[in-house]
Amino acid sequence: MPSPDADAPTSPWVRLLIVLSALAGINYLAWRWIDSVNWSAWWIAVPLVLAETYSLVGTLLFGVTMWRLRRRPAPPGPVGDFTTDVFVTTHDEPLDVVMATVEAARRIGPRHRILIVDDGDRPELSATAAAEGIGYFTRSQDWRSTLPHTAAGRFRGGLMRTDGEFILVLNAGQIPETRILESTLGYFNDPQVAFVQTPHHHDVPFADPLQRQSARLDRVLQQGQDGWNAVTFDGTNAILRREALMHLEVDAYVRAVERDVKRTLAAADTIIRRAKKTAGQGDLVIRTALDGVGLAVDNAWRAVDRGLPLGDITYRFREQVDAASRSLVEADVTTIRADLDAIAALGGGAESVMTAAIVDDAALDALASRDWSPLGALESISTIIRSIDLADDDVAKPTPSAAAEDLATSLRLHMQGWTSIHHPEVLVHGTATDDVHTVFPGRLRLAQSTIQVLLQHNPLLAKGLGVDQRLVYFATMWRLFAGFAALAYIAAPAIFLTVGVMPVHAYDWDLFGRLIPFLILTQALFLVVARGRPTWCGQYAGLAVFPMLITACVAAVSSMWSGRTASTVAPAIVRRGLGLVAWQLVAVAVLVVATVVGAVRLHLGATPILGIGANLLWAFLDVAILSTAIASVRRRVHQSAKGVR
Amino acid sequence: MTEFNTRTIDSGVVIIRPTGRLNMVAAPVLREQLQGIVDGGSSRVVVDLSATEFIDSSGLGALISGLKLTRSAGGDLRIAAPTEQVITVLELTNLNRVLRAYDSADRAFDD
User: Is the ipTM of this complex over 0.85?
Assistant: First the structure.
C-alpha cells in the first residue's frame, strides 16, 4: 500500500548517494583508462576495461533512473462513467488457469466486458468461452497481417470487437483484485495518461533469490521510471486507454505508408538508371521521357526529406509523371497534325478532314492518361507508377518485426507525448508457477525483443522524447548487454589465477583504493532505494544468465538481418533441465579450477599475495552469482521430478 | 526491337502486321519499315492491326506518317482488323475519319 507521504520528492540522501557513487565511479574508471591498463596483455586488458566502462555507464544510468524515484499516493476516484474491456491473454496455459483469471475478472468492480485473446488458437478454449458467454478472439488468425509491433496491432482484433474506453490486460494466471478498476481509473482523469502499469506480484514468492531479487529490483526501477514518465508496459496487469492505442495504430499506418513510398522511390532511382543505360544514346524520345520521370522522383525525394505530407507527395509525383506523359502526347499530336496538313495539301483524299478536329482536348487527356500513356511503353516506368499507387491506396503492410513488443508500445506512446503511470500498489496476484522452463524462455524473448526495439528505434534519437526519457529507456536496454561484460569478468580472474597474466599494471592499493569506495557507495545506493532489502542477485543477474543475454543479442541482431521475428528464433535455443545452464556450469568449472591453481600457486609462494587474494575473492563471487542461476534450475528440475509444478 | 512481318500479295499491295503493343518503343520500328517499303517502290500498304493489342499516341503518329509517305508517293495506307483498344483510340481521336478500318487486310484495296 502506498504510504501517506508517498509522493514526497526523492530523498536527498538517495540523491547524495547517486552523486557520490557516480563521482567515485568516474574517478576509478578515468584512472583505469589513463594509468592502469596493461596494454602488453591487451587481449584481456581491453575487454576488461571495456566491461568495467559498460558497468559504470550502467550505474550512472541507474542513478539517473533513481533520481526521481517516485512512490505515488492513491489516485482520486474516476470521474464519470467509464466503460472497460478486460483482455485475458493466453498462449498455452491450461484451460482452468485461463478460466480462473476470467472468473476473477468477472468479479471486478464497474461494468466491463471480458474477451479471451488466445495466441494458441485452441478450439476447446473457444468452446468454453462460448459456453460461458465470453468473447473469444484468436489473434494468430490475423495479427501477423496487421501491426505486430504495437500493442494496438496485437490487440487489434480485440479492439475491433469491443468498444470500452479502457482495456485491462491480464495474462492468464494473473488474478486481479475486485477494486483494480476503481483504484486506477482515476489516473485517467488526466487526458494525457495512456496507461497505468501495476506491479507483478507472486503470492508465493519466488523460491530462489535470483528471481525474487530481480523482481524486487524491477519494481524499484519502475518507480524510478515513473518519475521520468518513462514507465514500460509489461504486457499484463496494466490498464490502457483505447484512444492511445488507436493513435498508435494510425501512427504505425502512416509509418508503413512512408516506408512504402521511400522504398518505391529508391526502386525508381535504380529502375530509371538502368533503363537509361539500356535505352542508350540513340533513342532521344525515351531518354527525354526517362528524364521527366527522373525529375519527378527527385522532387518526391526532396519533399520526403522536407517532411511534407505523403498524400501530397504521391499526388504531386503523379501530376509530374502525367505532365511528362502529356508532353510526349502533345509532341506526337503536333507531328500528326503536321502530317495531316501535308496530306491535305496533296489534295484529293475523300477522307480529308479539318486537322483541328483531330485529337481534341478530351482525346489528348485520354491519350496521356495512365492507361494509354506512352510512358507505359517503358515497363520500368509503369512499375514505378503502379507502386506509387500502391503506397497510396494499400493498407499498411508492416514488415514482420519483433513479436509483441510491449516495450515498443510504451516507447511509441511516450514518443507521441502520452503519459504513463506506475501504480505501486499490488492489484494483481500471480498464481502461475515460476516454472523455469517458461520463465527462462520468457526472459530470453523479452531480452531479445527489447534489443530489437533498441535497434529499430534508437531511444537516444527517438523523436518526441525528452532527454530524461531517452536516458531511462536507454538504461533499460543497456542492461541487456551485460552478457558480454560477464565474459570479461569471468575470464580475467581465471586467466590471472592460472597463467598469471594481468589485465592491469598491478593489483595494488592504487586500484583497490579507488575501486572499493565505488563498490561500497553503489551497494549503499541499491540498499537504500530497495528500502534495505537485498537486490544484489538482481544487479548481477546479467552475469548469472550471461549465455541467455548473449544469445538474445545475437538472435536479435540476426533476426533483424534475416527479417524473422523474435518469437520464431527463441524456442529453437531453449533447452531443458540443466542444459539451460550449461554455459554457467562450464564457467563455474573453469573458475573452480582457476581457484585451485591459484591457491596452489599462492601456497608455493607466488606473489603478489594481494593480487592473488583479490582474484580468488573475485572468482568466488563469480561462482556465487553463477550458482544462483544453476540453483534455480536445479530446484525446478527437482520439483518437476516430484510432480510439483 | 525485331521487325514486323511483311508480305506482298498478288495485287502488289504490301501488308505489314505489327504485333503486341504499338507504343513508344515499337512505333519507331514501324515508321522505319514503312519508310523502307515506300523507298522500295511500293506505295500501297495495309497495316494489319489484328495482332496489335495496344496503341498509344506514338503509334498513331507512326500510322499517320506512313499515310503521308504513301500519299506523297501516289499510293495509300489503309488499316485492317483493328482490335478493341485500337478502335477506341481511333474513335476518340477522330482519326477513324482519316483512317477507315477495313475488315480484311487482303481485301483492303479491293475497291
Answer: yes
